[in-house]
Amino acid sequence: MFLETLGSALIGLLLGWTTFHRLSHRLPSRLLVQSTGVAGALFGGFVTHSALGSGGLLPTLLGAVVVSAASLSLLVRPAGRLRRRSAPA
Length: 89
Prior knowledge:
By secondary structure, the protein is mostly helical.
């Protein structure tokens, strides 16, 4: 279980770092992105471990990747300004 936790935290750090460097112009601060990546990965690892039991390291880490990526995707801002069109009169 220690390896699952450590692996999930490292995956979250890696995903947060990669996301920030690839999409830094569309994300908030680096600290928020890193902490969201780690928290999402730890939560995903916990949920997967709770659902599957101690079945193995790979499924738990896969769950950590999925939840961390989903959490980080919620931080991405739209690329351009939102254009609001007025309703026709």
